[in-house]
Structure formats: structure tokens, C-alpha cells
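Possible regression after last week's pipeline update?

I re-ran a chain I had predicted before the update to compare outputs. Posting the input and the new output here so someone can diff against the archived version. Not blocking, just want to make sure nothing changed silently.
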Amino acid sequence: MLIPGLADGSRATPLANMVLWDDLLASSTATTLDYAQVPFDHPLWVLYSSGTTGLPKPIVQGHGGILLEQLKATHLHLDLKLEDHLFWYTSTGWMMWNFLVGGLLNGSTIILYNGSPSYPDMNTLWRLAEQTGMTYFGTSAAFLLACMKADIHPGRDCDLRTLRAVGSTGSPLPVAGFQWVYTQVSNTVALESLSGGTDVCTAFIGGTRLQPIFAGELQAPMLGAKIQSFNEAGEAVSNEVGELVIAAPMPSMPLYFWNDPAMVRYRESYFAMFPGVWRHGDWLKINARNGCVIYGRSDSTINRQGVRMGTSEIYQAIERIPEVLDSLIIDLELLGRDSYMPLFIVLRADTALTDELKMRINARIRHEISPRHTPNAIFAIREVPYTLSGKKMEVPVRKILLGHPVEKAANVGAMRNPQSLDYFVQFAQQLNSTTVTLAK
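New output (post-update):
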């Protein structure tokens, strides 16, 4: 962790393993830095996508495009200044690590953390915010919801007076997550829910300090990002859920994919559905005030009796039930049926999946979503498969349940918990032998 000082000009209290910036410079043996001039589109790095839809994509991005996008995002959208301390909880396996380092472009201090966010308890990162004078706390929606489930009170138990903003990404942040931040963290922070991806190493929808914040919404498309919602005919729609598209180029779009010299996989990944228009693979609704709501991956759409729906709404309903810690829902077309949709849930310790709990889960889905979206069956599992960046692996699990081998459906090296796939491999074998009860 490199910390030059707090926002008020005072020095931070040294923590274990902390190196102060001035001390690092004083001890350095290097006297000069050598630079090489390269073209705007010179390759900068290879980033691997998270693997939420299958094998990760090896994305090559360029110097100039990344420089422009990250300067724009951190300076104009995150509103970072020289005195700010930017933190994002991330590992080097997620593009948010590259985004965090981009905070140095406009002179802000960045805070890097290597360790569990829940050890010794869920207040660990909030104590880090207090100790470092953090002004921007970046994390994932999953972490904020885990804090809410753990019933912690960071605003009460930690001194967060320096905190100006909280950023959330990785998955949609539901209304309950917004409410928790403003009641249990701070009622004055700018809570910015962002959507973007490894593909562009930035956000294309996010925060703006010039507009109100509405719970459950992303405030607006980012500057220079022509974000639209397309219907099946390729027409831009408003106040209607459609495919999220980027209708004009952004500087940090990939130069190419590694080992894809003919650009075949590149075109198939983004331009197969709407020729000439980038389709990102998320469900999006843009309302009259330009606010945006993400409904989850369109690749993992649930289609029940002709009604299509993203999975995020179902997760939000299910995971507010106290006994349910996590969930995964998969829509399959098997054995001549229109649809077979199992729901997999992770339960709190010492909680059993009883018939009464199943009835409450189904009742919640019927009431808040619709009767046709109740699952065919509910199963208790130990853990939901996640990518290193904290995204549920709906599409790879669906492929496994449809009989695809694991090595073709997922890259276990890009997973947080690869052992979690073992359950679904066994479940797929049961499905293929028709031993799983398919009746509602």
C-alpha cells in the first residue's frame, strides 16, 4: 500500500507492511526512467474476460484508447482529484485492478488490498477505509449485499467522514443495496452503480455528479459512449428492455483477440446479432430521464411460455429471504419439454431446505415476478460457481447441464471456486439418466 498522506495534509499512521511513498523514493536506486514512444494503437496488455458465457476471451487493448477512457472515467465520472484516495476491492484477475491503477493518471492516491474482505469479519474493508482516509470505496454488488446480510453497521462502527463516494459493479445493485448503503454507511455519499466490462476496461454506464441518484438505477451512459437498448429488429427503444448495444466506437474497444488473426472470434463475439453494432450481451432498459437498469446477461435469458426475462430480478427476490445466502437459476430445454428450470440455493448454516421454505421461495417469485417464473425444482448446494471477478457463471453451468464437457464450457483457471462445478457435473449425469424429477 502506498499512501503519501491524508486529505487534510497529515501523515497516515503506518500500518503493518505499509511503505510510505516518500520513503520508497528515498530508498530507490533508480535515477532515471526510460520511455519509448509508441503509436496510439500500440498493444498495451492482454486481458482475459471473466468467463461468464464460456471460455474467456484474450482481449488486446491499446495504449491510447485505455489512456483516454480511464482519464475520462476517473476524472469526469468518479470525480477524482489530487487529494482523493481511490480504493477498489479487486484481484489482478479482474479488469478493475487495471482500472484502479488508472486512478494514478490524474494524480490520485490508490489503495491496494490483498486479502479476504470477510476476515476476521465483514467490517475489514470499512476499517481499511477509516485507517487510510479513503474517499472513494469501490467494490462489487455482491460484497455490499453480503455486508447487508451480515447485518453490519460501518457508518456507526467506523469513522468514514472522508468517504465521498461508493462505487459498485460486477452485477446489478438492487434497490435494497442502495438502501443499505444510505442507511448503514453514509447518507451523503454518491453511490455509483457502474456497468462496463473487460472488453473495454472501463464503464460505459455509470455515475455523474450532475444528476440525481435513483435506487436500483445506473445514472446515465458515460461521456462518449453511445449506449442504446435494441429490440430484436435492431431498433433503439426507450422504457423497454432490450439488448445493450454500443452504437458508435469507443477508444478502448479491443484492437483484436490474441491468436485470432482473421478476427473471426472477435466479430462473432460482438457483431453477429446486429452487423456493425456492438452487442454486449446484457439486458438494458433506458428510461425517460436517461437512467439505466441492467437486468442481467441476455445470454442466460429465461424464456417461460414466451416471456423472456433476465435473472437479476429473480435473484433479488430470492436472496431477500433470510435463509438464502446465494442462488443460481438455469433455464433448460430438455426431454421434449418447453422448459425445465431448476433453482439452486446456498443456505445459511444449520438451515435445511424444507417443504415450507420451498413454498415461501415459490410464493415470493409468484408475487414479485410472475407465476410462470417459479422453478420446476429447488436444490440446496454448497456454493454458486463464480468467476474471479465475482460473476455468477450461469451460461457455463447451463452448458454443463446440457451435456457439454467442463473443459468446453468453462475455464476453471478463471474461476474463484472451480470445485463448485463438481456438483453440476453430477447433476448433469442425473439429468441425462432422467433420475431427476422434472414435474413441478
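Follow-up from reviewer: compared with the archived run. Confidence is low (pLDDT under 50) at residues 1-12, 435-440. Marking as no regression found.
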